[in-house]
Amino acid sequence: MNHAILSEDVVTVAGMATTEDRVEMLDVRVKTLETWAGPGQTEALAEGQRAIRADLAKLRTDVTALKADMAAVQADVAELKADVAELKADVAELKTDVSQLKTDVAELKTDVATLKADVAELRSDMGDVKGILEEILRRLPPRRD
To answer: What domain range is 106 assigned to?
Structure first.
């Protein structure tokens, strides 16, 4: 050999490498060289475009499905809103009914209190009537049978 080698199979001084070694090194570098105009690059770009188109088609399908799902959700929300409006109307009606019942109960309590007072007054009056009746019976002459 007529060139310097510091380790096996590696030329460390380029000036001492043979033309054959230099061509071999360039061949290795060209095999790994990637340029936009290099061989296979067009096919790689076309394959990338096909993959992107496939992904877009799947994305469109997913978006279409999501739109259908969203339409169903919107229909459900509209139905729920109608149900809530109906429930609000029912609750308002119940509140009115409860308010009326409270008024009726208050009126009944007043009527019961009045009745209790009237009964107490009637009892008092009956006591007076009983006393007067006893006095009348006492003043009457005895019965003749």
So the answer is: 34-139
Give the E-state strand segments of 12-110 in sequence order: none
What is the Cα–Cα distance from 24 to 19, expressed in whole angstroms?
9
Question: pTM (2 decimals)?
Answer: 0.45
The token pair that represents 130 in the structure block: 């009983």
Tokens standing for 30? Answer: 């060209």
Token digits of residue 42: 């067009």
Give, for 89, the enclosing helix (H) or strand (E). helix 41-139
Using CA atoms, how far residue 71 sits from 17, 61, 63, 76, 104, in Å, is: 74, 15, 12, 9, 49
What is the number of structural domains in the chain? 2
The model's pLDDT over 126-143, given as tens digits with 9 standing for 90+, comes to: 999 999 999 998 888 888
Task: Tell me the per-residue pLDDT of 59-101, one tens digit each, with 9 for 90 and over.
Answer: 999 999 999 999 999 999 999 999 999 999 999 999 999 999 9
Question: Cα-flanking dihedrals φ and ψ of residue 11, to 5°?
Answer: -90, 125
Assigned token pair, 78: 């509209």
Q: How many residues are given for the chain?
A: 145
Are 76 and 40 found together in one domain? yes
Residue tagged 């809530």 (tokens) = 84
Question: Is the domain of 87 the same as that of 123?
Answer: yes
